[in-house]
Amino acid sequence: MTKEKWFYTYIFIWVGQFVSLLTSAAVNFAVIIFLSLHHKSAEVLAYAGIAGLLPQALAGPFVGVFIDRWDRRKIMIFADAFIAVCTFLMSFAFLNGEVNLLWVYLLLICRSLGQAFHSPAMQAIAPLIVPEDQLLRVSGINQMLQSVSIIAGPALGTLAISYFPIGQVLYLDILGALIAIVSLMFISIPRLKNEHSGSSIGAVLKDMRLGMQEIHRNRGLFLLFVYSMLSTFFVMPIAVLYPLLTIDHYGGGKWEMSIIEVVWGVGMLAGGGLLSAMKVRLSKVIIINAMHVTLGLTFVFSGLMSAQLFWLYVLITALGGIGMTLFNASFMTVIQEEIKPEFLGRVFSLYFSFAIIPSIIGLLFTGWIADVIGVANAFMGGGLAMCLVGLLSFLTPPVMNLGKRRNDTVEQ
Q1: 109-123: b or e for each residue (b if 16 or more CB lie within 10 Å)?
Q2: Is the pTM of the predicted complex or chain greater than 0.85?
């Protein structure tokens, strides 16, 4: 398959992944609503977040080695299937309107392991199919699909949980996974001819070390990773408190929670539309740093405003969605441009792990933050810290010089 036909291949990928994203968003939000209203506990939400993140963080560096060795299309298929099985088993943890939290946490751990394979594989296939000058646009379209799922998912999840038990609502995610698997059956993705030294533990560790060296040798990219980790450390324990901010500070309920999720998705959709429709000439690093500051300010104002200004909170949340899309798409594209395709599985896995580990540390303190500091104050503190990270990144020359040499060569 030539890169001239990349668009036709991506149509199948986009269709399947969109349905999967939509049903997952619906189910995830339905579960959040159920846990938030049933337990009204920041700790329950935090532990669920940790269960969904920690396995990815721990397994990521090892998983990346095999993503670079194996067929990435098959990895996505088997990961989707495994996640669907876990979701089916989770439905039995919700019986008669009650929930077995231990089983929910355990199955979230298993789903996280499947996601540890799926997400890096999905990101790593783009440079094998897409011309380099189209990578940012593809990232923008990917963000648009995610945005539409975020817009429609909460509404679908709220509607579903209003008429069906939570255990049955989980079947939506299974249906989405099956459609994603079928769509992947109709495409082929080029395989890299990687040479590796075997399947022993030593060989796997060696390949993992090579992936780490690929990041470390690029000082600008390494520092960009560090700033992303710092930002995630401050933001993640705050982001998980969004439902509680809506309920406690702004006096909302399930529909207000849905509105916040929807406008976040509308913002992401607008950001993705901008990237896919326009040829962006601004440095991706500048976009990344600016979005650190923008997202931080949305957190600050969300916690600072009066409880009577709910609709202004809605508008600010939409601006945060735009910022998140511009950040994610630009960051992923920088990695795809700076790293050789044969290392992308390892590098994306390491990136997801690097981003998740500090956020888990932060999540451990979520309950304490909510009870001692207060949800609104936590939003302001986390937002200010994120703004500082963005400013530091602007003042770091190796980061600001990322991609300049390649761009100068292209212009010549």
Answers
A1: bbbbbbbbbbbbbbb
A2: no
